[in-house]
Structures are given as C-alpha cells and as structure tokens.
Amino acid sequence: MSSSSDLRAARRAGLGSFIGTAIEWYDFFIFGTAAALVFGEVFFPTASPVAGLLASFATFWTGFLARPLGGVVFGHLGDRIGRKKTLVTTLVLMGVSSTAIGLVPSYASIGMAAPALLILLRLVQGLALGGEWGGAVLIAAEHAPPSRRILFGAFAQQGSPAGGLMATLVFLGVSRLSAEDFAAWGWRVPFLVSAVLLVVGLVIRLTVAESPEFLATKQRGEIVKAPAAEVLRTAPGAVLLGIGASAIGIGAAYFLNAFTIAWTTTELGVPRATILSALLVGTIIQFVAQPVAALIAHRVGATRFMIVALVASALLTPVFYLLVSTGDGSKIVLGIVLINIVAPAYFAVLAGFLTQAFPARVRYTGISLAYQLSATVIGGSVPLIAQSLLSSGGIGLVVAYHVGLIVLTLVCVAALGRRIAKSQGVADLPDNSDLRASDAPA
Question: Where would you find the membrane-spanning parts of this chain (predicted)?
Fold first, then answer.
C-alpha cells in the first residue's frame, strides 16, 4: 500500500474514531446532565431534594464502577480478535442502553423497579464506554504514521467535547419546557435521540479498516492469551501511573458539568438555560482548543506540554469557582471559558501519551485498565464527593479537592513521561514513537 493510501486510511480511521467516541460520550454525558437536573425528582422522589440529588449522583457513579470491567472484557477482545469488531460491539451496547433509559418508567409508575432499571442500564453504559475509549484511541493512533501518533490519538479525544456539545444542545432545547413537562417527558428526548445516533455511528464505524499494527502482531503470532494478566505482570508501574495521569482528564468534565450544573441551579439559583448556555460556550472552546493543543505538543514534546497545561489549570481553577460563585451569567461564562482554554490542552494529548506506555500486543487492555480504573476510583466519584463537600463545608473544600486532583495528575504525568522517554532514550516524549511489542517499559 502506498504512503498516500496509508494516510487516507489513517484519516478514515481518525474520523471513525472521532464520530464513534462523540456518540458514546453524548450518551454518557446526557446521563450526567439528567442526574443533575431531574433524576432525583423522577426516580428518588421520597428523599429530600439534597438526598435525592446525592442518590442521583451515586447512580451516576455506578457507570464508572463498571468501566474497568468493560476495559478488561473488551480490552481482552480487542487484543485478541481485533480493534474494529470490539468497537462495533461497544457502540451497539451504548446506543441500546441509552435509548432504553429514555423508556424507563418513573418511580411514581413502578416504584423501586424504576431506580433499579436505571442503575442496571447505567452499568451497561459503563461497560460499553470502558471498552470504547481504548479501542477508539488505538484504531486512530495505530493507523497513523509514527511521527503523528499524538495528533491522531487526539481524534478520539475530540469525541468528548463533541459529545458534550451535542448533549448540551439537546438538553438546552428541552430545558425550555415547563418544569412539569420537562420532568414528565422532556428529559427523555435526549436519550431517545441515541437510537438515531447509533445508526449513524455504525454506518461510519463499519467502513474503518482493522488496525495495521494489530494485524502485524497477529501475523507475528504474538497474540496474548490473557492480556490483563500480561499487563499486570509486565507493566504494573505503567498502569498505576496511568491511573494518576488520567485523573483530572476524566474528573474535570464532571466538575464542570454534573457538579456545576447542580450547584448553580440549586444553591445559586441560576436558571437551567443560563448554565447550559454557558457550558455550551465552554464546550465549543474545548472543541477548538484541543486540536491546537495537540499540534503544539507535537512540536514541543508531550510531557513538557502536559505539565505546563496542568500548572495553568491549577492556577485558574480557583478563579473559575470564584467567578461562578457570583451567580452572574456573564461571569459564569468567563470562568467556564478560562478553564476550557487550559484544561482541555492536557486532555487532548493524554490518549496518544498513554498509548506509548504499553506494547501493541496488550495495548488495548493496558490503556483501558489505566484510564478506566482512574474513571472509577477518581472521575466517577467527583460529583458525589464535590456535592458532599459543598454540603458539609462550602465551596472552598470543593476548590481544594479539584486542585488536589490536578496536582496528583501532574506528578503522575511527569513520572510516566520520564519512564517512557527513558525507554526510548530521549529527554522528553516527542510525537515520534513507534513502540513495538518489545519496546514498551515494564
């Protein structure tokens, strides 16, 4: 195959990765938005408003509890039967479960069966996303030329703001309904839209070719029988550092969406439409900022760039909360814009960065374990912990918690970057890695 054909295949894989992850993140984000706005009222009406919100956020977290299992199951399949088949399966699971959530009767209709069904479907969402992210990153990065892996890994990361953008737009539309109509049926519309997106995603994803690096690994007879066991045996340090390096990349979205929506619409009395419009602006900023960040990191080195972006995030996070706490719409927009300029810069590079920590034969499982364990232990608990801190000690504790996660991420990014760079014999991690089965750090 010619180099021009290779590049076309890489671009097609990048587009397929972007579209698929955008749809899956849309499905995941609409749950977080609905949890903040209406699930307490619909599925936990016997509790007080605060207790109902906490129960709603706890249900939100159950999706994250399933993500490591999804990472192991689908990582195993992705490392054994291929990236493409696995990604088609995860997309179908996510689309079906999300559509079904829109059909679950309320607590008033079927009692405790309603939250039980909601939790079950949320677990299926978590399984699907747990397997989706790693495969989407790899289908893009492993098609890319060796000198462009950070750039092509960013295609999958673009799915997050694109999914958030779609979720916010749909909820912004239905939020203009009366409170009664929104609670009765309006919140269901975003979930039912998932059925249409599922069809679109499948059409696009089925046109993407299998990863050439996986095919080469298979041809060399290097397919591993138990990828999870192999990862934990050969690269436990990379998994642990990957968990920490992913922390704020996952958590930031839920500070800005689920927690901020609940905080502003309840305690601060900000109208739903105002905060959703502000978040829409922030998501657009993120969508534009991430490709620019990937281009810069491609030139200056991934580790160095990520550290600078994380330091800037730590400095601007207290400013963000100060501006939002005013309850003024224009200041809320300013705070969200500021944080969405710096925080996504690190997130854009994260996918390509993590792929270089594991060899191809177990890469799907390795990056899925690191990222999804981080999602469970750290990311998914953000709204619940932040809301509890707000209720018990005020917004200052939430700020300290947010900044603490940024510092944890920074330390782990620096350590993992040194580890990968040392294995390649370079001073920093540039976008020129071509790690093969025997090259990744143990």
Answer: 21-44, 50-75, 87-110, 116-141, 185-208, 238-263, 275-298, 305-326, 332-354, 366-386, 392-416
